[in-house]
Amino acid sequence: MKAKYTAVWGITGIQLAPEDGDLELINDPGRGVRAVLTLDLDRYTLHGDRAAALGAMILDFIFRGIPWPDDIEDGIAAWVEQIRAERKQKLGNTPALVITMEAESELEFLEADHCRENESFVLCLDAVDKDTIRERFRPAVTAAVNAVILSIENIETMRKVHDSVVFERPDGKPVYALTSHGTASLSILKPIPTGIEKTTINYYMLLSADSQLQRVQQLLRAAQETREDRLRAFLAAWAALEILINKLFPEYERHFFERLLGEEPQAALRTFLERIRDVMEDKYSLNEKFAASAVQLAPNEADRDLETMKEVKRIRDRLFHGEQVAEDALPADQALYLARKYLHLHLEASAARSGQQAP
């Protein structure tokens, strides 16, 4: 059985005239890779769009109670039209870079109980993990993308608008393998908290007055504004978290040792603790700095948050050391959660210490 991966990016900064037709940039039969610049990308995404349409129909049926169409092909066609219209709206008249990769797949799942066949396609639910295919193709596809970037210096932005893996039986019939863990996120709408106006103005006054954390604030905003771009959101959220920890640690280290000393410390105890601070000054890891602040700001949740911090940093280290980390696996939400939480806890603690009104 053949596996085919298709990824499409809209590209700004270059122009492709309609009369020029498609511009083939890469054709590597040995690896099964092809890269094309086109203004007519729909013919490259047919089966990916049809698979996405089927997935949308199934979700509508399960979660919204929308009846299954009498004619499945009519239902698919309607959804494909909607998918393509939304994509066209995003792209406008910009050219699209289409990269496809085909290879024989060792995965054999057509005999699974989750597969059903009709005249035009085979549908399989939760029968295969397509991420294994993406990981297998990733190096060659990445090389193709970077080859285009290096070759066309006028490229300004690249925005991915399509990503699909479909299969093909030896007789040519397409196989649409859907999984229940898609990449969509679930939003739970919650009512606005009571008294939000007072809380907001209090936070505003505290943030406006805190010149030491301006960069943290900028990065938090960037992380929130780029949530749809997983990599950018993670990098911004991690930077905000790391800077925040390093900014807060000296203050909370001092508070920690002041508690150990008490109100009337013995000279010997002071000497001993000051020696510990001097020796450890440049030896604390980031996780240890986080723990020192967390245990004071959120004592009942510090252990749990420290475990989250360790996991976020572990994946950050893998990414920064050049290991392969799927963008969907980047813990952007966890990093953003920790940065937001400990910024507002610090602001509240600082306000309480200074006698200001806390949010």
Judged by helices, strands and strand pairing, the structural class is: alpha+beta
Largest sheet composition? 8 strands, mixed
Radius of gyration from the CA trace? 27 Å
> What portion of the residues fall into strands of 2 or more residues?
15-25%
Number of strands: 8
Q: Taking all residues together, what is the mean pLDDT?
A: 84
Q: What would you call the quaternary organization?
A: single chain
How would you describe what is shown here?
- The structure is a single chain.
- With 359 residues, the protein is an alpha+beta fold.
- The protein has two domains: 2-178, no CATH class; 196-354.
- The chain has helices spanning 46-63, 72-91, 131-151, 196-209, 214-225, 230-261, 267-280, 286-297, 302-320, 332-354, and strands at 2-12, 23-28, 33-38, 96-104, 115-117, 122-125, 157-168, 174-178.
- It starts with a strand and ends in a 5-residue tail after the last helix.
- The protein is elongated.
- It is built from ten helices and eight strands.
- It has an eight-stranded mixed β-sheet with strand order 2-3-4-1-7-8-6-5, with helices on both faces.
Topology, pairings included?
Elements: E1 2-12, E2 23-28, E3 33-38, H1 46-63, H2 72-91, E4 96-104, E5 115-117, E6 122-125, H3 131-151, E7 157-168, E8 174-178, H4 196-209, H5 214-225, H6 230-261, H7 267-280, H8 286-297, H9 302-320, H10 332-354
Parallel strand pairs: 6-8
Antiparallel strand pairs: 1-4, 1-7, 2-3, 3-4, 5-6, 7-8
Helix pairs in contact: 1-2, 5-6, 6-8, 6-10, 8-9, 9-10
